[in-house]
Amino acid sequence: MVFCNNCRKGLEDSDIFCPYCGSSKDARVEQTRLHNNPNSTDIVYHEDNTTNNEILKKDIQIIISTSHPDLSIISASNYFNQNTFVIVGEVLNKGRKEIPFVQVIGTYYNDSRKVIGTSGTYTNPPAIPPSETVPFKLIVYPDDIVSFDFFKSYKLIVSSS
């Protein structure tokens, strides 16, 4: 599935511009299953990201996982915003009970798959009712990571305390 990087709405593969916000096809995010494990519930996304002045252009890989059987990250995308890297998405409660204090944790890697930083955020609201979806926004500041220059991939894990 393909998503608009600006408004996060679904796009057809043939769309050149987003029919919702008008962004160009360069602002698309592609979602595919992990190639090495077709049975995996992890999802890998690939996208080109640019800063507002288009100096920084990268291919960033996203791996999504869960440490709670009833929680699932159903969408995630990212963009650079001035001096920060922003990850937005949605978490689904697949269970029959409300899950409190739902947290999304990001671990950031360089091209050698070495950890270069971590950060976390709570969903908004932090408790998710059964069968409901809530958004999250994880902002990665320069102090959270060794350097954006070495930033090649990240893993998102959703959990509850």
Describe the structure.
With 161 residues, the chain is mostly beta strands. The chain has 2 domains: 1-31; 34-160, Sandwich (Immunoglobulin-like). It is 0% helix and 51% strand. The chain contains no helices and 11 strands. It has strands spanning 2-4, 10-11, 28-33, 43-50, 57-66, 71-81, 84-93, 102-109, 115-122, 133-140, 153-160. It has an 8-stranded mixed sheet with strand order 2-1-3-4-5-11-8-9, with no helix packed on it. A 3-stranded antiparallel sheet has the order 6-7-10, with no helix packed on it. The chain is globular. Mean pLDDT is 76; it is low at 27-57.
How does the overall form come out from the CA principal axes? globular
Order of helices and strands: EEEEEEEEEEE
- At the fold tier of CATH, the topology name of the largest domain is Immunoglobulin-like
Query: At the first level of CATH, what is the class of the largest domain?
Result: Mainly Beta
CATH architecture verdict of the largest domain: Sandwich
Based on secondary structure, the structural category is: mainly beta
Instruction: Give me the oligomer status.
Output: single chain
Poorly predicted regions: 27-57
Average of the residue pLDDT scores: 76
Q: What is the helical fraction, as a range of percent?
A: under 10%
How many individual β-strands? 11
User: What is the strand content?
Assistant: over 45%
Total number of domains: 2
Strand order of the largest sheet: 2-1-3-4-5-11-8-9
Taking Cα atoms only, what radius of gyration do you get, to the nearest Å?
A: 16 Å
User: What characterizes the major β-sheet?
Assistant: 8 strands, mixed
Number of discrete helical segments: 0
End-to-end distance, in Å?
31 Å
